[in-house]
Amino acid sequence: TDSAQLTVLDATTIAGQQLKPGNYKLEVQPDQTQMKIVDTNTSKMVAEVPVHWIHVDKAPSSNQVILDHNNVTEVEFTGKTQAVRVG
User: Fold this and answer.
1) CB distance 50 to 72 below 8 Å
2) Could you tell me if 12 and 71 are in contact, meaning their C-beta atoms sit under 8 angstroms apart?
3) Which of 59, 1, 2, 47 is closest to 22 using CA atoms?
């Protein structure tokens, strides 16, 4: 499972799902098309959103959650050239 942490300070959207301020874990299985969003305080899944895998030219040295105007658009994983685009 590939995963990344996301701390939300202001209302944030991921594939149309509203995330309240808090800490979340974004999890996706290799070759799967759904990403789970888990509230790390309660360990409960709060949403499951569609994703598709893309290639990135350079593997990041740490997980990267990319936002556009408080909307999560992409998640890149440490040391991997495969990332997921949301939606």
Assistant:
1) no
2) yes
3) 47
